[in-house]
Specification:
single chain, 14% helix
């Protein structure tokens, strides 16, 4: 029998995760090490020519798809999404066979608005084609993805840290088949319950199943994180972020890796990634097997980064 990995969640931690929809933060990098990594990373991020989505149409008015999935061409990020401190904990939630299908950067600059309260189940709400980006087996009974959000910089309330509503992952309050209207003029100008919030030029409230419903913000918990920590949560958890107050000139930068069991189909109806008005071919995309094995063979995988650095799956064992 494979020995239980040292970073798996124990029974009490799993109970906490299933109760609240999130757990953490956990330490990953000491702040000084993360700062060195970030300094080395910045010039590589500016060079999007090696990105798997390096196309003119990848840049839209609200996002830059060329900076999605940079773990496929930047070695530090490739190592990051496969770190045992992350993978073992995720595998203890999803089971031993796990893939990483996406990673994204979430910068927040001084003066930026907070992010709307939102949930994501199949990620069709932001897709131009309106096709689900992920499809769970019919007998799964639920959807969403596990997000591992790492603070590449300090994340305080004043700098725009995450907010969660514990336990809200069990009920979807939004209909992802609805459409949102892009309005560049609304960015940083709309107050919602006295807080400047938006969603990359969109208003996530347009997806509410009940237009008269509003999130229970009194139950919200602010996720203050030091540089180099990470937190794990279901994408179906009600989450948002504070505005960046501008009290410091430092940017808040988060990096999110998204994980699924290998039974879930990724981009089953699409040959292009289409989000927020941007579009890019999926021809060079591939999932990364981070734990166990793929016995379903319905997803595309890559075995190495574009520079040839191999991805190695963890073997955490059935009891991990």
């Amino acid at each position: 029998m494979t020995q239980r990995s040292s970073f798996s969640l124990d029974a009490d931690e799993l109970a906490e995760f299933h109760r609240n929809g999130y757990i953490g933060p956990f330490d990953l990098y000491p702040p000084d090490e993360m700062e060195r990594n970030l300094r080395a990373l910045r010039p590589k991020l500016l060079n999007t020519r090696t990105s798997v989505y390096a196309e003119d149409r990848a840049i839209s008015g609200s996002t830059n798809l060329a900076n999605y999935d940079r773990h496929l061409d930047v070695d530090f990020l490739a190592e990051h999404i496969t770190r045992p401190e992350i993978v073992d904990r995720v595998a203890s939630i999803l089971g031993p066979d796990v893939l990483c299908w996406r990673s994204e950067f979430f910068p927040k600059y001084p003066g930026d608005e907070g992010t709307d309260w939102h949930q994501a189940d199949n990620f069709s709400n932001v897709a131009g084609s309106k096709h689900p980006q992920i499809v769970w087996p019919e007998d799964a009974g639920f959807g969403g993805t596990i997000t591992v959000w790492t603070a590449f910089t300090e994340a305080t309330v004043d700098m725009g840290c995450l907010q969660f509503i514990p336990g809200s992952h069990r009920t979807m309050n939004y209909d992802e088949s609805k459409s949102m209207t892009y309005d560049a003029d609304a960015i940083n100008r709309v107050d919602k319950n006295g807080i400047r919030r938006g969603f990359f030029g969109y208003d996530y409230r347009q997806l509410q199943k009940d237009p008269n419903w509003s999130p229970d913000e009194a139950s919200a918990v602010s996720q203050v994180m030091r540089q180099g920590q990470f937190i794990i949560f279901w994408s179906t958890l009600m989450h948002a972020s504070h505005p960046h107050s501008g009290k410091t000139d430092g940017m808040r930068l988060g990096y999110a890796g998204r994980y699924l069991p290998t039974s879930v189909r990724v981009y089953p109806y699409s040959d292009r990634l289409e989000e927020f008005g941007g579009s890019a071919s999926l021809a060079r995309f591939g999932n990364v097997l981070v734990s166990g094995q793929d016995s379903y063979e319905h997803n595309r995988f890559v075995s190495a980064t574009r520079s040839g650095r191999p991805f190695e799956a963890r073997q955490t064992g059935a009891g991990a």
